[in-house]
Amino acid sequence: MKIVKVKNLYKSYGSNKVLKDVSFEIEEGEIVGIVGPNGTGKTTLLEILMTLRKYDEGEVEVLGATLPEKADFVRSQIGVIFQEGGMYAYIKVKEALDLFASFYSLGKDRIDEIVEEFELHQYLNVKFHKLSGGWKQRCLLAIAFLHNPKLIFLDEPTTGLDPKATQILWNKIKGIKDDNRTILLTTHSMEEIDQYCDRVIILKDGMIVADDNPENLKMKLDKRYFNEVYFSYVEGV
């Protein structure tokens, strides 16, 4: 099943053409990374898919729904984690879960399931700003997953985390993927792309310059590490 379909997408801000003829599809159950230099359109592309921004030309379909016409439906079906999440600093973990559950009319049983799945018991009465970076991200992932979204967007999910916290978070992400959820993420870590992503889309100057499995791209360019592949595409080295 195609979870995302993008065809001939264009987006400009005034005279600045941010996305130029972008086309790709994402299958159900994939982990897909979007990478590229700053200013190349990654954030704009994600914002369009998350219904936060309209595009100029092209066709965009998410979870079988056309955007922007069916944006409300798409919003109800996706989970989103931004960097730091925009979470209230002084809200307790339990209060945050209760708050976001109320947005989807979810009951205590679902909250209890999430607490169990993400092992949040000992942190329920801890204020968000008191959590470590790893536990903040785990809490945000739990909140994003409360309503069983079919598609989850992760914006730099491991930025600022130590190696242990990064590994724990990726174990959780992979567990969600194993449940046939689809994950679309941005990251500056080429190692994470290489190790965890089923596919990577590389953007340069608003256009897709590569879209394939990381291993296939390494073989195609005869490179040992994915960061070498990345620099070959974006810097021509």
TrEMBL record:
It comes from the Bacteria. Residues 4-230 form the ABC transporter domain. The keyword Lipoprotein does not apply. The keyword Oxidoreductase does not apply. InterPro entries: AAA+_ATPase (IPR003593), ABC_transporter-like_ATP-bd (IPR003439), ABC_transporter_ATP-binding (IPR050763), P-loop_NTPase (IPR027417). SMART domains: AAA (SM00382). This is ABC-2 type transport system ATP-binding protein. It comes from Caloranaerobacter azorensis DSM 13643.
